[in-house]
Amino acid sequence: MKSISWKKRFKIWLYNFYPPYIGAGIRIKKIAKDLSFFQVEMNLRFYNKNYVGVHFGGSLYSMCDPFFMLILLEQLGSDFIVWDKVGSMTFVKPGKGKVTATFAIPESEIQRIKMEVETKRKGEYHFTTNVFDEGDDIVATLEKTIYIRKRGRLPVQNV
């Protein structure tokens, strides 16, 4: 994988200061130099608890939302359009204490997607990750569907 400039990594690190992340107590802890891997965590605080004293579901989803799309945007490059299409989270057990999620797409999967989109011009791809508590128990499972299309001129219509 290609190495990403320190400026771009710094820009991603600045997400730690994105108001919704600050408000939820979300921190990006690890970023791969090529932006192919992210590790994100969130501690339970008074401002991100729900009514029954565990992690607010919206904060858990926010913690996970952009990372698969970000990885694909960086790994596929500017010849491709990448959009989140569907996202869902299944809550498995109450989140207490610190929760962590990791996001990675293997190089082989990136290459497969690239080749498929080069051939078909577009596709939808599904990714899953889990949010874990400090005891390595699954708190929630995130499922994302990402739409990817080859950038380029559209065929002339209605000529």
From TrEMBL:
A Pfam family recorded for this sequence: DUF4442
Checking SUPFAM superfamilies in the record gives: Thioesterase/thiol ester dehydrase-isomerase (SSF54637)
Q: Which InterPro entries match?
A: DUF4442, HotDog_dom_sf
Name under which the protein is recorded: DUF4442 domain-containing protein
Q: Which organism is it from?
A: Leptospira yanagawae
